């Protein structure tokens, strides 16, 4: 496998060298969707978001819903523990400002004075009419990751549900279909709405060609199928993995992570940094019986650096056992000593047999290296880095396989810089387009307003890449402007794209408009490979 990988690296490196030388108003249930050829589709791809994470982590950490049958006033309201002024919302305050103390106006609909906001991580960011505005502006493929984290559920004191991760995944899959039925009812009945959950790339292509939004279900969870590992002892078997993959496939899941945030019985994880990293490391201790184990890397690839933590919130610090403190690590760069286990290899092989998309983000470099070896030996193209959580040295190998890379939803300037940096790779591997992983409702910040944009702001109204005229987004009494608010909610994605067009020109819009085609080509190749096995 190593020799195959070396040959692939040499070949792709030569190719790369050669390349381097040379709004809220009612809308119909379809939108215009120009194509670049008879077969190619045109539109944006978001390969990583979480519309239904409000049901995760016990169901009381995230405030607000993407829809409610009783209307927006019931859907977009704050968590009870945030009342009356946000002073008790320690998790919101800490993730937003770095301090567990603070205040905010808890009123959502209709004033939205303080939320949603690009840096408010516990408030709903993807109400369905906001997603609808993004669809009107050109979004055509969305990978909606059903998400769960048993340790975060256990840490947060309030909950409506239990902390079993797979129960949470099942509930979120149900909510996804409820939203589809809700939108269908608004547009005349079953199958008539613009939000379509798809099960294969051919169906997704038909949906996009019809001008609708193809929604792919994925799973991002820390202990898939109960595959936790405590003091080195695995909590799952191959039979559990087979049953779990069969169940997820039947639910419609077509993209999946093997590990996320905490080491498990399948693989070691890529670390988080700073105070957030310290919190996640404590979760690793509580979940596995051990803190992360790191060594100083000897290769170009490395995991995120484990930096000294700042002041931990008292609610988190109290979780450490008496006399136990965070460990001191060797010199950076840091690499997780845990890689891909034999059970992790078995899971990846099972996903290949089913033609699923394998998410490589969140794997430690040791695990990612082994996973890519496995995929290269099989010639399997169905691999994706969906939100910039893998070492950049692996992008060449992902593209060489025929895989897909989408960038985290950074601010416009940062996103443009990374698009430019990686453009020679896409040219070398003849990748038709680019995409983003906004991670909406994933407790990561949405794109901030562009610094210094007064001289060249987004001017309203503007024409989206799909030819739709959009003015400032309005919901209730609140009007948002991307120049001041950034991507305060999902509805401002078209404004963010326009912001990038202003600073980078039409080329970036063209690349992003080919993102849906790129994703569907990779997914199609994966299913074809599975059918040949």
Describe this structure as you would to a colleague:
The protein has 533 residues and is an alpha/beta fold. It is built from 18 helices and 17 strands. The protein has helices at 2-21, 72-75, 90-97, 128-136, 150-155, 165-186, 201-209, 238-251, 274-288, 314-317, 342-353, 365-378, 395-401, 412-428, 482-485, 493-504, 506-513, 515-532; strands spanning 44-49, 139-148, 195-197, 213-221, 229-230, 233-234, 253-257, 294-296, 334-336, 357-359, 383-385, 404-408, 435-437, 462-463, 469-470, 473-475, 478-480. The strands form 5 sheets. Strands 1, 2, 3, 4, 7, 10, 11, 12 and 13 form a 9-stranded parallel β-sheet that branches. β5 (229-230) and β6 (233-234) form a beta hairpin. α1 (2-21) packs across α14 (412-428) and α14 packs across α16. The radius of gyration is 22 Å and the shape is globular. The two termini are 19 Å apart. Residues 1-28 and 32-38 have low confidence and may be disordered. This is Coagulation factor 5/8 type domain-containing protein. Keywords: Signal. Residues 1-31 form the signal peptide.
